[in-house]
C-alpha cells in the first residue's frame, strides 16, 4: 500500500506543485486578504465590532457623501457616452474607410495613455484655466468642476474605447458585406445591419470599461474637480484626512461595484462572442466613398488636434517663465523644487516602473505557463485562472486602501514591506495583471502542445524548455507585457496615493503636489517628462518588434 | 521475456473509455503498428506507453521493470509527433544538440559528432544550419526522427508520423523509416490510421477499435485471417454475405467470375465498373450483399468483355471464405 501511494505521488512533479502553491499563496497575500480586509472594515465600527450595514446607512444618510455618489455617476455616464461614440467613430475611420494617414491617426490617438490622468487635467488647466492659453484668447469655460472632470475623462478613456473597437473592427468578415452587396443592400444599411451587430458585445464591454475608468479615477478630479466631489476624492479624504477607515471601506466597496458588474458582463459576453470569426473569413475590401472619407478625415483630425493642443498647452507652460505674463523661453521649470519631490520623483517612477516591468513580466509568464501548460493539478490551475482575472475588476484605489488596512498592521508578518518601493511595485503588478496575463496565455496557446511531451521524452527539465523555447517563441508577447507594465506604472496614481512615503514620491504624485503648491509650470514640465519617457519606451518597443519580425522572416525564407 | 508489456490498462476520459482492458506485448527490435480508426484509443495507448498520460488501472512493464508510474523523462524513449514539434527557434542541428545536452558527461565535440552522425543517417547533413520553417514537410519529419534517435533511446514512438505529408513523400519515407529502424534495431511502436502504412512497415500489427484490441498479428495474418468482422472490414476490402445465422466474408480478389455453364454460386447484373490501374473492380448486387465487388487483374478483365448491365456468374471458393457470428454493421 505504501509503495502504491509513493508511486502515485511520484507521478506528480513536486517542483510544479510547489510553484503552483507558491503562486496561489502570493495571490492570496497580495489580493484576497487585502480585499477581504477592506470588505470586513465596511461592516465594523472603529473598535472592530461587527455593525452590519450601519456604516452603509450612515453613508446614505449623509447628504454630502451621497452627493459625491450622484456626481460620480453623472460624470461617468456623460464620459461614457462621448468616449464610446468618439472611440467607435475614430476606430471606424481607421479601419473601414479609405482616409489617408491611418497609421499616423492610429498612433497619435494613443497619446493620452502615455501621461497620467492628472496630467490631462494639468493640460486642460494650461489651456482653459484662469491664466490659460485659450482663456487668454477670450474663450472662457467653467473648467473647474463637472466640465473639467468630464473633459479629462473623455481624453483619458477615448483611447481605451478606440483600442477596443479597433480590435473588433479590424477583424471583419468581408464575406457578409459581399453577400449584402450582391443583394443590393445600401452602404448605410450595411453598417446598421452588419457592422453594428458585429461590435455589439464590444459596445457593451467598452461602455463598462469607460464607465469604470471614469468612476474610479482619482488623478483628474483631485486637481480639476474644484468643489465638485466624487467617490475617489471622498475616499482619499476619508482615509488620509479623517482616518475614518470604516467609511473609507464603504466608499471603496461602492467604487468596486461597477467594476465587478463589468467583470461579470465581460465574462458572459466573452463566451457569447466566441467563434464569431472563422478561418474562412475573407478580408474586407473597403469601397470608394469620397464624402464618407472626407467626413471621417475631418473628425479624426479634430480629435488628434485636440490631443496635440493639450500637449502643446503643457509644453508652452513648461518652457515659458511665467505664462502669460512672461513668455520668455526657459528651461528653469525643469529645475524642480525639492519640496514637491523634485526630479528625484521622476527617477523614482522610472525605478518603480522598471522593477514592475521586470518582475511583473517574469511573474505573468511563469504564472500563465503554470496555468496553461501543466497537465496535472487541474483544480489548482482553475483557481489560478480565476485569480488571474479578478485584478481586472479591482480599481487601483481599492487596492491601495486594501493594502493600508492589511499590510499597515503591526501584526502582519509582511508589515516590513509597508512604506517601501516593494509595496508600490506589488500594487502595480497586481493592478495591471489581467491584460498581460491574457496576452501571455494567448501567446502560449499558439505554441505546439507537444513541445512539453517531446522535452519530457528527451529528459529536458521544464524550466529549461521554458527558458530556451517557450520564452523565445513568445518574445513579442514578453515585449508587449514589459512595455504595458512600464507605461502603466509610469502613469498610475490611484493605488500609490495611499502607499507612497514622503521619502519616496513618484512623478504622478509629485505633479499633484506641484499643482497644490502653485508651481504649475513644473507640473506641466513633469507631465512632459513622463510623456517623453513613455513615448521613448514605445518607440524602442516598436523598433524591437520590427527587428524581431525581420529575423523571423529570414528564418522562414 | 518481451521488451514491453501493457497489461489490462483502463483509461477513461469522463465516462468515455479510451482504453478498456487493453493488453499488448512488443518484442525487442520489432516494429509494431497500432492501427485503428480515429478515436479508437490508439494515441492514448501510445501516450500511456510514453508516460505522457496517466492510466486509471493496469500496468506498463518496460524491459522487465514496472514502469507504470515512471515519469516520461525516466523512460528513455524517442518520440516523433504528427506536428513534429521541432523547436522553431533552433536550427536543425540545434534541435538535436538540445536533446543531447541532457546526457551528462557528454562533451561539446561528442555531441556534435553524434548530431552529424544522425543527420547523415536521415540524409540532412547539408540542411543542418537551416531553421525548421525553411525545410519541406518531409525534411522536418526526418529532422524530428533524427532528434528522436540521437539520444540512442531504448525504444522509439511514432505518432502518425507521416499523416501530414503528401502521398509521394509518405511512400518514400515509409521505406526510409523502416530502413533506419532495422539498421538501429530499435524497438519501435507506431500509431497510424493508414492500413497501407501498417501493412507495409510493421512486423506486427495491433488493430484497435472502440477502446479494445481487436487483433494482433503479422500483416499477412491480419489480412488473410482477420479474427473479427471489424478487422475484416477495416483492413483492405471485404464482401460480407448475410447468412441465416452467421455472416460469411470473402476478399474481392478471391471471387471468381465463371461461365454460365460452369458450376456457379451466385449470379448478378454488373452494376458498375471501376478502373483502378492494375486492377479493375466490378460491382454487382446480390440479395445477400448490396454492394458486392470482384477485383480482377485489368489484363484479365480486358479479355472478358464485361459491360454494365450484363449478367455475370460468380464462384466463391470455400477455402477463402471467412465466417463471423456478429453483424458487420455493428462492427464497422
Provide structural commentary.
The complex is a heterodimer of chains A (557) and B (332). By secondary structure, chain A is mainly alpha-helical. Chain A folds into 2 domains: 14-48 and 336-557, MetI-like (MetI-like fold); 56-274 and 282-330, MetI-like fold, CATH 1.10.3720.10. Chain A has helices at 2-10, 14-42, 54-61, 63-96, 102-108, 117-128, 133-136, 146-170, 174-182, 187-198, 200-216, 219-224, 231-241, 245-273, 290-319, 342-373, 378-389, 396-407, 421-431, 434-445, 450-457, 462-473, 475-491, 496-499, 507-516, 520-554, and strands at residues 320-322, 326-329. Chain A has a two-stranded antiparallel sheet with strand order 1-2. The longest helix of chain A is centred in the last third of the chain and has 35 residues, at 520-554. Chain A is globular. Chain B folds into 2 domains: 4-229, P-loop containing nucleotide triphosphate hydrolases (Rossmann fold, 3-Layer(aba) Sandwich); 239-331, Beta Barrel (OB fold (Dihydrolipoamide Acetyltransferase, E2P)). Chain B has 10 helices and 18 strands. Chain B has helices at 42-50, 92-100, 108-121, 137-150, 167-184, 195-201, 219-224, 229-234, 298-302, 328-331, and strands spanning 4-13, 16-26, 31-35, 57-62, 65-66, 77-80, 155-159, 187-192, 204-209, 212-217, 239-242, 247-250, 256-258, 266-276, 279-284, 292-297, 311-315, 322-324. In chain B, helix 2 (92-100) packs across helix 3 (108-121), helix 2 packs parallel to helix 4 and helix 3 packs across helix 4. The longest helix of chain B has 18 residues, at 167-184.
